[in-house]
Write a structure and sequence with these properties.
By secondary structure, the protein is α/β, with parallel strands linked by helices. Helix content is about 45%, strand content about 10%. A six-stranded parallel beta sheet has the order 1-2-3-4-7-8. It has a two-stranded antiparallel sheet with strand order 5-6. Helix 2 links the parallel strand 1 and strand 2.
Length: about 260
């Protein structure tokens, strides 16, 4: 169990008591799997102080299904995993990195709630999951084509909700673009390529005032000074050089972008 990464669908919850019980049982079962994996990773790291925390696998979103699902998901999955992990070491962070869909030319508004409602869902989730630490919101600029103003609206609302519940807010800066570059919706644009640094810089400038920390997953594939992407090594090196110059010139403040905690 746990060898293959899966994103199981969380059932929509009806008012039927038995349906609620079944949904809670499914969520608890997956939380147990995640906790088992966390224990294995902790043992492999020998409880190293370098381990800062654990990222939960399921990527929540502003899909309308979460309006109902969060009531069981937050206490049984987020809080359950967080409580167990903090038993390993009390200062370990437990967090998730959800995404937000705002591009209405691609995705129907009826299926996705607006940023203000989405932030309300997370504020309630924090109340249901007191041991859960924080959200690192994906800016979803890379594949979902959120605009800078879309991202700002998500982060502004999440920042207010997080502050009210005494939680920090991180932002997950996507460093890639779809490829080939001329691929346009509704074609399936599944290729990835390091985004131009000018776009990445705009993301940093847009998100830095609203988040306590900026993180990125695609470090080796999009921003590596070494081998980087086997397909685009020169692009990753060029991005790293531009990023280093940006930081040296005072860009990014003292925080900049760092790898995510896995």
């Amino acid at each position: 169990r746990g060898r293959r990464r899966r994103r199981p669908a969380v059932p929509s919850l009806s008012q039927d008591r038995h349906a609620r019980l079944r949904a809670a049982a499914i969520v608890k079962s997956f939380a147990w799997t995640q906790w088992t994996i966390a224990q294995s990773l902790w043992a492999a790291a020998n409880g190293s102080a370098r381990v800062e925390g654990f990222y939960t696998e399921i990527e929540e979103s502003n899909n309308a299904m979460w309006l109902g699902a969060m009531k069981d998901f937050a206490p049984h999955y987020l809080n359950g995993i967080a409580a167990d992990v903090k038993g390993l070491r009390s200062d370990l962070l437990v967090w998730s990195s959800p995404y937000g869909v705002a591009n209405r030319t691609r995705y129907p508004a009826t299926e996705y709630v607006p940023p203000a409602v989405y932030a309300e869902v997370w504020e309630q989730a924090f109340l249901w999951a007191p041991n859960f630490d924080l959200v690192a919101q994906q800016d979803s600029t890379g594949a979902l084509a959120n605009s800078l103003s879309d991202v700002r609206e998500f982060l502004t609302n999440l920042s207010a909700a997080s502050t009210r519940q005494r939680r920090p807010l991180w932002s997950n800066v996507e460093l890639f673009e779809v490829w080939p570059r001329d691929c346009e919706w509704p074609d399936a644009c599944h290729g990835r390529h390091p985004a131009p640094f000018e776009r990445i810089k705009a993301q940093l400038e847009n998100e830095r005032p609203l988040a306590e920390k900026l993180i990125a997953w695609e470090w080796s594939s999009c921003l590596s000074p070494n081998n980087g992407s086997e397909t685009w090594p020169e692009a990753t090196k060029a991005n790293y050089k531009a990023y280093a110059a940006y930081l040296a010139g005072g860009g990014g403040g003292a925080r900049g972008v760092r790898n995510g905690i896995n």
